[in-house]
Amino acid sequence: MLVDEMKEMPLEDDIYLVAELYKNFADMTRVKILYALTISEMCVNDLSEMLEMSQSSISHQLRVLKQARLIKYQKKGKNVIYSLADDHVKLLLDQAYEHIKE
Amino acid sequence: MLVDEMKEMPLEDDIYLVAELYKNFADMTRVKILYALTISEMCVNDLSEMLEMSQSSISHQLRVLKQARLIKYQKKGKNVIYSLADDHVKLLLDQAYEHIKE
DNA sequence: ACTATATATGAACAGTTGTTCATATGAAAG
DNA sequence: CTTTCATATGAACAACTGTTCATATATAGT
Asked: Which strands form B42-43's sheet, in the order they lie side by side?
């Protein structure tokens, strides 16, 4: 038995944060965007074409992911290049992928 | 560079499953239930009291988690004892916890 | 300054979700 | 077999979410 095994509930605030984090992954469009960005950083239009979805829809969802700090962006001329905020994001995707493939 | 690094989008169906999986974790009540069950298996009334929520609400959410195969149950007299389906579930919780604590 | 291109944003709307309330089911005890 | 306790379920409703459409902002090129 591991010493650090959990035997108590986490704090309400932490549970809130966990649920909020997972909400970002609870929609196909956002998961697609995140997967796309694991392949390569991309501008809004690239994402829009690659995922065959309206620019507006992509843009709205990018805002959600941005606010959750799962992605970051950098302006380049007329474009805005989005990329994953860190490796943790891919880890979360991979973990889910493993789960559904078991 | 890792050999198995992803350079393609997963299939639409797999993305759907990933999003569906994460939906289960995208609600505080369900996350609370799952955390509670990492501590110990429990009947509906235990959960209801522990989380200070109505029996009906807990029962509805247990159904969702059951359908997602994240929990299993076993009847014991008048009670129904719920427990986590497998270790993977705790892993998914832990991963999120790490993320919010970084 | 004007035009074209890229992105962001707000309102509106439909679809989904989580809770409550009332009630049903089911099992055990008397 | 009736009562009690534990759980499940359905309808109703409010809140939330994701898309579309229209429009705003911003940058680059002419």
From this structure: B42-43, B79-84, B71-76
Q: What is the DSSP letter of A27?
A: S
Helix (H) or strand (E) holding A79: strand A79-84
The secondary structure of A33-47, three-state, reads HHHHHHHCCEEHHHH
Nearest CA in chain B to A19: B26
What is d(CA A80, CA B27) in angstroms, rounded to the nearest whole number?
A: 32
Please indicate whether, in this complex, the C-beta atoms of B28 and A15 are within 8 angstroms of each other.
Answer: yes
Give tens-digit pLDDT for A40-90. 999 999 999 999 999 999 999 999 999 999 999 999 999 999 999 999 999
Contact residues on chain A for B26, CB-CB shorter than 8 A: 19, 22-23, 25-26
Domain A11-101 fold is: Arc Repressor Mutant, subunit A (1.10.10)
